[in-house]
Specification:
The protein is α+β, with helices and mostly antiparallel strands and 85 residues long. The chain has one domain (5-82): GIY-YIG endonuclease, CATH 3.40.1440.10. Helix content is 36%, strand content 25%. It has helices at residues 25-33, 58-69, 73-82; strands at 5-11, 17-22, 48-55.
Amino acid sequence: MADDHYVYVLRCADDTLYTGYTTDVERRVREHDAGEGAKYTRGRTPVDCVHVESFETKSAAMSREYEIKQLSRAEKERLVESGRE
């Protein structure tokens, strides 16, 4: 089965980190940059995709998205620097 569910981390222009779920990372990053993404990223563009993880199921990806969102800023920075924890 193809991995077509993704969790991604964006670094926003104000140096904050945003975590989201998508089935198409490139399209989603374009949407964020165009101000059509999440409310959080509007006004924080441009964004830079700094981390991506792929999953076989939406459920697995959504669980991981929640897990990443619970991390502290320092833990998220370590994730971005070293890859998947």
